[in-house]
Amino acid sequence: MMNRFAATLAGGAALALSATAAFAQSTTVPGEQVGLAAGAPLPEGIYAVDTFTYRRTDQPFSPDTSVNVPFLLWSTPLTPLGGRIEALVAQPTVFAFTRNAAGQGNKDISINVGTLLAGIWAFDLGGHVGVSFLGGVHLNDLDAGRGSLFTGAFAPNPRVPGGLSPVGTPVLPQFSSNTYRFGVAGSYTGDGWDITANLTANIYDSPGRFGGLVGSAIGPLRLSDALNIDLTATKKFGNFEIGPVAYGTYNFDISSFSAAAGNRGRFAIGGLIGYDFKAFTVQAYVARDVVTGATYTNALGRTRDNYSTDGWVRFIIPLYTPPAAAPVVAPLVRKG
Q: Hey, what's the signal peptide range on this chain (predicted)?
């Protein structure tokens, strides 16, 4: 019984620590905005978008991770100074799926990310060029998953979460603080092109803290602010869309005391395909790291770069667009 419990404890701690390493980056997932002409103002209406990514690292038996980001965007009729106001609400969720070898405990987890509330101010500069500015906040302090992985060390049944053992926590240290998100994007959308560069900054209240008894045991966490870049250069041929994409993240604080210790960030390159079904649009893209600050030690004790491969799928659904204004009919005048 003790051997089984020890294996469960070790498996849980390994999952938590590996998931932490896999997401030693901004709350905004790099690549999340690839394929969106974020700089161009949207026509007035309400849009639903869901973006899902599945990620696997080169490190053997490290967990696969995924993030689902559904959001609603209201492109309002308000255009102060010529820029359209857009309101956005999103509720992301993070998942981790273990790949432990036989004989080791396996556990899949999901963690709620703080609801994102954001506003966008988007301008059409003419010549199919647009620029937008975003400001928002992930309410991690209010409703994000705490990221604590209980082992049940003091519970009657070790399979039941409980007790005060914080082994392997926090899974996602960046959730110990609200994430203040700021972005600027520029897009060219002429002749079927989507050429977009999108910069996103994530700012934290550092040091961050989790609440409750486990949070007290963990103590304060030093968090690194981060900067993401998402790049798109796709072309539409009829209803089809295809082209290269790239994205990356840069962590500013990689000191030994930071949650991003030793990991400056990553940069990935890939390709996107999409199809416009008129009622909705589907996009899929795959990217592979070409630069990474993540490392792991193999069975021979050698340190290796821990590259990642990401697969993505997105659905874009216009829910409502206002009816077009009826044309004004000129009166027919006859001369007698």
A: 1-24
Asked if residue 92 lies in contact with residue 110, where contact means CB atoms within 8 angstroms, the answer is no
Predicted confidence (pLDDT) per residue in 296-309, tens digit: 888 888 999 999 99
Backbone angles phi, psi at 80, to 5 degrees: -65, 135
Nearest Cα neighbor of 220 from 165, 256, 176, 164 is 176
Asked if 76 and 84 touch (Cβ cutoff 8 Å), the reply is yes
Which of these, 84, 88, 89, lies nearest to 121 by C-alpha position? 84
pTM score of the predicted model: 0.85
| Structural domains in the chain, sorted by start | 2-320 (2.40.160.40)
Q: At 214, give phi and psi (nearest 5°).
A: -65, -40
| Phi-psi domain of 278 (left: phi exceeds 0; alpha: psi -120 through 50; beta: other) | left
Q: How far is CA 39 from CA 26, 42, 87, 231, in A?
A: 21, 9, 14, 12
